[in-house]
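Students often ask what a holo structure prediction actually looks like on paper. The answer is less mysterious than it sounds. You provide the chain, you provide the ligand, and the output is a string of discrete structure tokens encoding the 3D arrangement of the protein together with fe (iii) ion.
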Amino acid sequence: MASLLITNIKLLAGVREENSLLRGKQLAKLPCIENAYLVVQDGLVASYGKMAEIQYRISDFVNTIDASGQTILPAWCDSHTHLVFAASREDEFIDKIKGLSYADIAAKGGGILNSAKKLHAASESELFNLAWKRLEEVRQLGTGAIEIKSGYGLTVEGELKMLRVIKKLKEKSNLSIKASFLGAHTYPLEYKEDHQGYIDLIINEMLPVIAKEKLADYIDVFCETGFFSPGETETICKAGMSYGLKPKLHVNQLNSIGGIETGIKLNAISLDHLETLTENDISILGGLKASPSGEVWRGISSLLPTAAFFLRMPFQPARKLIDAGCAIALATDYNPGSSPSGNMNLVIAMSCIQMKMLPEEAINAATINGAYAMELQNEVGSIMVGKKANLIFTKAIPSLAYIPYAFGSSLVDKVMINGNMA
Ligand code: NIG
Ligand code: FE
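The corresponding structure tokens follow.
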């Protein structure tokens, strides 16, 4: 692939010479270069610097882009989504407007079970086409790397169907994609009174095929009252870990029942949701205090503000978590039940507006820390020599803070993935 020179970049944001997961105060530092150039070679960032110090002649390049007035950022890294699903659930949205809670809807067979019913009726190719459209949509909104979960199958056939769709997305898309197996999303009706029966199905029937066909990178469990207990979560994760799948868990969305302690004991890559936290949980997540089993947590806390917004729940206490020293990532949780949006720009705006994160903190949490939450930090998440040229070109904006400030505007002009305009 030929090389490309991008000139006159008003602001090049998120440039880093080395990788590190950002914790606490470090999140507020977003290194930027004003009036910059950037060279892309073979889809990767080859060099960058100040226009005033450019060593190249524009005539040496076949491909050039004049980015006058534009800000360039690393593409968003969305580390928690359920992007493969068969149908939307706006009927439940109306039920919620009328007063039912997420838990009420789940208890009457709606929610995840409703999505599972619809998923069973859809073919693999239908599911792929729907997911592909969503992937295209989020790419245009600036997402360059994404994690996608199973969890609407809840049978051997259904879970494998979802994971095969994700595998096909990985093969066909130029986005960086990671897959998580979330067979433990809820108990199917026939196993409501037979938890061990469903856990056995996950361990003996699903995991061996997933491992054999290399269908997942991570194992996820919805650890929550009425769903999977901390003990069940541990059993399922350990079985996944025996096949090399690292845990990445749904914890403390609705209740604080010990999911954090379990995740820390299992050395999870990330603990996600965290709407419902005690002061003790916050100290543990920040690494200020050891978890009851003795470990000091150094992993990632992923916050999903659009899920809190959509379910009308209190937002995650981002400020307290950052002040406690936490490594925060931001993600969309794109799914039909609690966050029917895969728009990372909106996630960043909500994080600043409702969770009082600084724009720099939110951008770092949605790029480099998101990359760490998918173990993709060597490929994406910052503008660094050798990483993928996954870039957001903004429309003319006065400052970086304008991105979350003008929350309803579409400020992404173009998106480059692996050096190609999407
Ligand atoms: O992350 N809370 C568990 N899972 C999803 C919602 C799933 C659904 O309602 O379909 C979430 O919010
Ligand atoms: Fe989720």
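The CA atoms of residues 96 and 102 lie 7 Å apart.
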